[in-house]
Amino acid sequence: xxxxxxxxxxxxxxxxxxxxxxxxxxxxxxxxTQSSPRLNPEVQARAKRLSTQMARDxxxxxxxxxxxEAINQDKVAKMAAxxxxxxxxxxxxxxxxxxxxxxxxxxxxxxxSNDQYSNYYDSRTAYYKFDKDFxxxxxxxxxxxxxxxxLPANSKGAVLAPSRTSAPAAPANRGR
Length: 176
Known about the structure:
Number of strands: 0
Oligomer: single chain
Strand content: under 5%
């Protein structure tokens, strides 16, 4: 009887331990080097372009470049959300985006060497302008594309197209 009770208690403790470990693993922070599913393609392109420019200018190795791209994807996504939310107030957009850039500064300090970080820090405003110019150009391109190729008026997938002319239907014989 005691052996059965001890075995049952051991199984219960083991099961609870495994469940707690599984919950701890699911609550672990996500690896920022992996691409985030919440980013839309425009934001990813914007972050990729900025990361490529920065990696070239700062002469980063592969590890640094991948970490930089992950950081930029996160920060560009935040800036795009700010730009969309406060589109009517450019001053507020600049203030909040500069706050996001300061977050990037802190994260890059851990990734870049001292010389690279000094070069980055000296060129921060140029990178900010580079990113803003690309965002403005891509939003203009999207606007022109939406005017040239409008989406259907309803959500059921209707397509606006010229109506088809069909031959008139033959009259049905109603009597004999």
